[in-house]
Write a structure and sequence with these properties.
The protein is an alpha/beta fold and 469 residues long. A hairpin with a 5-residue loop joins β7 and β8. The radius of gyration is 34 Å and the shape is elongated.
Length: 469
C-alpha cells in the first residue's frame, strides 16, 4: 500500500467507534428482544431495512475495509433489496439425488429446475418466484447437493445460500446419514428455521413411513419442530396400465402420478403466513450483525497495526533525542514530553481523545508500575545520563547509545501499555494496571529490543559500533 493510501486508510480507521455503537444499539437490540411471532412482522421489517441501509451507507467505514468485504456488502445490498421488495426466499437443501429439484418443481407446478440422477445437476443457486403468502412474494432456491462432485465448493455454496434464505427445507429420502445429520446441525447453527422433508415416500408403506418419520424426528430433536418433519413424494413413478387393443394385443400405458406434497406445502404456508416477514427481517439482521462484527474486527486490527507503527516511530524519536542531548538529566525531561505526545497520538488513533491531564495521569500510572518492576534499569538510565555530561569522545557515544536504547525500551513498554488501555476503551480491565504492565514486560524480549535500538541509534548517529556485539 502506498504511503498516501496508507495515511488515507488510517484516517478512516480512526472514526468508526460511533458506527459500532450505533449499530449495536439501533440494530441488534430490537431483533433480540422482540419475539419472532409478532403479528405481521412489520416493525421488525422496518427496523431491519433501516439498519441495513445504515450499515451500507455509513461513511465511517474506511474504503479499504469496505473493499476487503466487498462480497459481503454486495450480499447485504441484495438482502436490503429483498426486504424493500417484500420478498421471502425459501431454499431446498440436501444430498445429491434425494429429489431436491423435483420437490422444488412440484411446489412450483412446473419444471423450472433441471432434474438428474448422476452427481446431481444443480450447478448454481437462482431464485424462482413461487407464490404470494401474506402479502410477501416467496421465491424458491434450489441448491447444489452437499456431496456432489467437487462437493466441498458446492457444499460451501449451498450453506451460503441457506444462510441468506429465510426458511430452509432439508430433503432426505430415507433414514438420515451422518453427513446429513452434520449438515443439519450446521444449518441449524445459522439460526435459520428448518423443515425436514422425507421425499420418495411412495417407496414405503404406511408403517415404514411412520417409522422413518419417527427416526427423523429423533435425529432432528432440538433442531426441527416435530410438526415440521413431513413425508412427501415429489415425483412418484408412473403407473403401468396394461389393456387390450381391438385386436386383442396388450397395450402398455404409463400414467403419470401427481406429486404428493400437500403436507409440506401446508406447513410452508402456515409458517410463512405467521412468521414470514419476521423471518426475513431476522435473517437480514443476523447477517448484518455478522458483517458488523467483521467490520469491527478489521477496524480494530487496522488500529492495532497503526498503533504499532506509531509506537515504533516514537521509540526511534525518543532514543535519538535522549542520545543526542548533552545536558545531564535534561534528556529525561525530553523523554517525558515524547511519552506524553505518544499517548496523545495513540488516543487519536483509537478516536478516544485524552486531555493533557488524562495523558499525564496515564503515563504516571504506567511509569509507577514500571518503577516497581524495573528499578534497576531506571538506576542505570539515570547514571548514564549523569555520565554522559562528564564524559568525552567515545565514552559519550557509548553511554549515549546505551541510554538511548533504554529510552527506546521504556517507550515500547509505555506505548504498548497505553495501547492496551485505549484498545479496551480506556480501561485496564479486570487485571488492573499492575498486571497489564507486568504482562507486557514479561512478553517483551528486552535483549533483542535493546540490540535493535542500539543498531538504529548508531546508524542514525553515523558512528561505527566499536563496543562489540
Amino acid at each position: 500500500m502506498a504511503p498516501a493510501s496508507r495515511r488515507a486508510y488510517y484516517r478512516g480507521v480512526k472514526t468508526t467507534d460511533s458506527f459500532w455503537q450505533r449499530l449495536v444499539g439501533r440494530f441488534r437490540k430490537p431483533v433480540e428482544e422482540t419475539p419472532a411471532s409478532t403479528s405481521g412482522g412489520g416493525e421488525h421489517h422496518a427496523q431491519a431495512e433501516a439498519s441495513l441501509r445504515a450499515l451500507l451507507e455509513d461513511p465511517g467505514i474506511p474504503d479499504p475495509i469496505r473493499q476487503s468485504l466487498a462480497e459481503d456488502f454486495a450480499r447485504l445490498e441484495s438482502m436490503l433489496g429483498k426486504l424493500e421488495r417484500d420478498e421471502l426466499h425459501l431454499a431446498v437443501f440436501g444430498r445429491v439425488s434425494v429429489g431436491k429439484s423435483a420437490l422444488a418443481n412440484a411446489l412450483l407446478g412446473e419444471p423450472a429446475f433441471e432434474v438428474g440422477v448422476l452427481h446431481g445437476t444443480t450447478r448454481e443457486a437462482s431464485p424462482r418466484p413461487w407464490r404470494e403468502v401474506a402479502g410477501s412474494g416467496v421465491h424458491l432456491i434450489d441448491t447444489p447437493g452437499i456431496d456432489e462432485l467437487d462437493g466441498e465448493a458446492r457444499e460451501q455454496l449451498a450453506v451460503e445460500v441457506a444462510g441468506i434464505s429465510d426458511l430452509v427445507v432439508f430433503v432426505v429420502d430415507g433414514d438420515m446419514t451422518t453427513r446429513e445429520r452434520d449438515a443439519l446441525v450446521l444449518l441449524a447453527s445459522t439460526e435459520r428455521p428448518l423443515l425436514l422433508a422425507l421425499n420418495k415416500a411412495d417407496r414405503y408403506d404406511e408403517a415404514e413411513i411412520e417409522r422413518l418419520l419417527a427416526r427423523l424426528r429423533e435425529h432432528a430433536r432440538g433442531l426441527v419442530r416435530e410438526e415440521d418433519v413431513v413425508a412427501v413424494s415429489a415425483q412418484p413413478p408412473p403407473l403401468r396400465r396394461v389393456s387390450l387393443d381391438s385386436e386383442g394385443r396388450d397395450q402398455v400405458e404409463m400414467i403419470r402420478q401427481p406429486a404428493d406434497i400437500d403436507a409440506l406445502r401446508n406447513r410452508l404456508t402456515d409458517v410463512l403466513t405467521r412468521e414470514g416477514r419476521t423471518l426475513s427481517a431476522l435473517n437480514a439482521s443476523l447477517f448484518a450483525g455478522r458483517l458488523t462484527d467483521a467490520v469491527a474486527s478489521r477496524i480494530v486490527a487496522a488500529r492495532r497495526e497503526l498503533a504499532a507503527r506509531v509506537i515504533r516511530q516514537y521509540c526511534l524519536a525518543k532514543s535519538i533525542a535522549v542520545a543526542l542531548n548533552p545536558i545531564p538529566v535534561a534528556d529525561l525531561l525530553a523523554a517525558g514530553a515524547l511519552d506524553a505526545a505518544l499517548v496523545t497520538h495513540l488516543a487519536r488513533v483509537y478516536d478516544l481523545p485524552l486531555t493533557r491531564r488524562e495523558a499525564g495521569g496515564l503515563i504516571k500510572t504506567i511509569c509507577a508500575q514500571l518503577a516497581a518492576l524495573m528499578g534497576a534499569i531506571w538506576g542505570i538510565h539515570l547514571a548514564a545520563s549523569a555520565l554522559k555530561g562528564i564524559s568525552a569522545g567515545m565514552s559519550t557515544v557509548l553511554t549515549a547509545t546505551a541510554q538511548g536504547a533504554l529510552a527506546w525500551y521504556a517507550t515500547e513498554i509505555v506505548g504498548r501499555a497505553a495501547d492496551r488501555y485505549l484498545a479496551a476503551g480506556k480501561s485496564w480491565g479486570d487485571q488492573g494496571a499492575k498486571r497489564v504492565v507486568a504482562d507486557i514486560v514479561a512478553k517483551l524480549d528486552r535483549d533483542s529490543i535493546l540490540r535493535e535500538a542500539r543498531e538504529e541509534i548508531l546508524k542514525r548517529l553515523r558512528v561505527p559500533d566499536k563496543a562489540g556485539a
